[in-house]
Write a structure and sequence with these properties.
The protein is an alpha/beta fold. It has one domain (39-177). It is 31% helix and 18% strand. It has helices at 44-62, 80-84, 99-103, 110-114, 116-127, 169-177, and strands spanning 14-16, 22-24, 32-37, 65-71, 92-94, 144-148, 154-159. The strands form two sheets. Strands 5-4-3-6-7 form a five-stranded mixed β-sheet, covered by helices on one side. Strands 1-2 form a two-stranded antiparallel sheet. Strand 6 (144-148) and strand 7 (154-159) form a beta hairpin. Helix 1 (44-62) crosses helix 5.
Length: 179
C-alpha cells in the first residue's frame, strides 16, 4: 500500500463528529486542516499528545487551521473526561470501521508497540494523568498526521513509526504560520 505524500491531493471525506459537527474537507477550498489519526480513545499516549495539542489549539484556529482528531473507538467508548473537556472544543471523529484509516493508509506495527522508547513515553503519559483505559482498538495501530493546504493539497504527511511517534510541533507551527 503506497503512502500519501506531500504534494498529493488529499482524499476527501465527509463525516460527522461525535458532538454532531459536519466535517467536509472539500467544502471549503480555502481552509487548512490538520488531521490527526490516533489509536483508541483510552490510549494514554494519544491523550497525552492531544493534551499538548489543546494547549496550542486556540493559536492554530487563529491562524486558520482546522484541527480534527480521528479515533478508532466507538463513540460510547470515549472517556467522560474527554467528552466534557477536549471534545467541547476540538472536533473528534469516531471511526471504528476504520474506513478513514484505510483511506489515508494509516498502518499498524507490532514493532511500533514494542519499541523500547514507547515505555518511557507511556510512563510520562500516565504520570501526566492519562492512565491506560480498556483498549477498544487494535494495539498495533500507529498514529498519522496530515497537514493539508487550502485546495486539499497535502503539505506534510507524517506516518508514525511507533505508537508514540507524532508530528513535530515545529512542523505544525511552520505550517500554521504560512497563509
Amino acid at each position: 500500500m503506497k503512502i500519501l505524500e506531500a504534494g498529493m491531493q488529499c482524499p476527501d471525506f465527509r463525516e460527522t463528529t461525535i458532538d454532531g459537527r459536519n466535517i467536509d474537507l472539500g467544502a471549503n477550498p480555502r481552509q487548512k486542516f490538520w488531521l490527526m489519526f490516533y489509536r483508541y480513545a483510552s490510549c494514554p499516549l494519544c491523550n497525552f499528545h492531544l493534551a499538548t495539542v489543546m494547549q496550542e489549539y486556540a493559536q492554530l484556529k487563529k491562524r486558520g487551521v482546522d484541527v480534527v482528531a480521528i479515533f478508532e473507538s466507538e463513540e460510547s467508548k470515549f472517556p467522560p473526561k474527554m467528552k466534557q473537556g477536549i471534545l467541547s472544543t476540538l472536533p473528534m471523529i469516531s471511526n471504528p470501521e476504520k474506513n478513514l484509516y484505510d483511506l489515508y493508509r494509516v498502518g499498524k506495527s507490532l514493532g511500533g508497540v514494542l519499541h523500547p522508547k514507547v515505555l518511557g513515553s507511556l510512563v510520562k503519559a500516565v504520570a501526566a494523568g492519562h492512565p491506560q483505559g480498556v483498549p477498544d482498538g487494535q494495539l498495533t495501530q500507529l498514529t498519522a498526521h496530515f497537514l493539508i493546504n487550502p485546495g486539499g493539497i497535502i503539505h506534510t504527511a507524517h506516518y508514525g513509526k511507533t505508537i508514540d511517534d507524532n508530528i513535530s510541533w515545529g512542523r505544525v507551527k511552520q505550517f500554521a504560520a504560512h497563509s
